[in-house]
Amino acid sequence: MLHALVRFRDEIADGYALGPVRSMLGVLLGWYALADAERLLEVGYFGDAFHLSMLPDLLVPSHRLFAVVVALRVCFAVMVALGIWARPSLMLSALLGGWVLLCDRLQFGSDRYSLFCYALLLSLGPCDRSWRTADSDVPHPSTGPYWAVRLAQIQVSIVYFASGGAKLLDPAYRTGLVLADRFARDAQFASARVPRAILEFLAREAVASSVSKAVIMSELVLCVALWLRPTRIIALWWGFWFHLFIDVTWGAGTFTLLTLAMYGTFVTPDFQARTLRFDPTRGWGKVCGVLVPMLDWFGRFELKPWAPDDQPGHSIVVVRRDRTTVTGIRAFAMLTRCLPLFFPIWAPVALIASFTRQGDLTTAT
């Protein structure tokens, strides 16, 4: 046990993959800061109306100070997204946002609390190694302490466990009554996101009961499967579609974006551990040579132009982490696995690739 704690404390890993996560948190922090600014202008200062403070009145900001706090949160959010003094800005954004929540419990929401919690934890890790407008090169060293990132991962699992556990202990949700009522009300108002016929189908008692059980099972399984190497990639893929279903059917606001952004913390910290070789004289090779650098947000691939070998005639060849080489459908499966925009189609592509040996190359490139 002591050895595990020491390893947890002393873990050093590459922080490149945390850059896009930090930038997305910056966008969400800015969204909430602007929402508070709009509310201040249209509704007024919350301290002048009924509010529930968890702090002494002396620590609740005045109208003028609150306006300054909101302006600072907007500025810090922009700095976080652009990578300018990223870690201090991320920490200050989290602390100021948490202060506002403590000053008015009525503004508390699981999405806001989770955002500020993730931001605070991520600010303690090497999240400033990439996605920096001031300097596009990866700084050296690109590694840093990873214990705070592990705490953020634990927080993701806690959210899943708490949500799934609460639903499991709620008979109304477990039997499908909660979802049936929600789907029925959405169908009544003909949600623009989902056709009315689909919502009416989901509102059926048997269907809603099945969906409720699937939701509970998904959340409880995800909180564990994300930590296991054999199941992590499947859990990430399933989690994407799970949250997309929730957002489309009954809406989850920014919580879906926040959770999907935090999935980036589960990316293995191995900057450019794979190599993509492309033939610029071929159409697909030229396309990959242009698109992959733009879409490789987590730094999965090192790109190299085609090198003459005894396996000529391939547009692209992927050298995997174990140094095996693949091309064709297997190379495309590897691209969908590593590029976030293509990740939603990874599972069917990988399934198709698993039924054929075509594309395996036994000669090292």
UniProtKB/TrEMBL annotation:
Look up the domain of life of the source: Bacteria
Q: Name one GO molecular function term.
A: vitamin binding
Domain HTTM-like residues, every copy: 10-271
Cellular compartments annotated: Endomembrane system
Report the principal subcellular site: membrane
Membrane topology per the entry is: Multi-pass membrane protein
SMART domains for this protein: HTTM (SM00752)
| UniProt keywords, alphabetically | Disulfide bond, Lyase, Membrane, Transmembrane, Transmembrane helix
User: Where does the chain cross the membrane?
Assistant: 12-34, 65-86, 206-228, 240-267
Pfam entry (one)? HTTM
GO cellular component terms attached to this protein's record = endomembrane system
For this entry, the protein name equals HTTM-like domain-containing protein
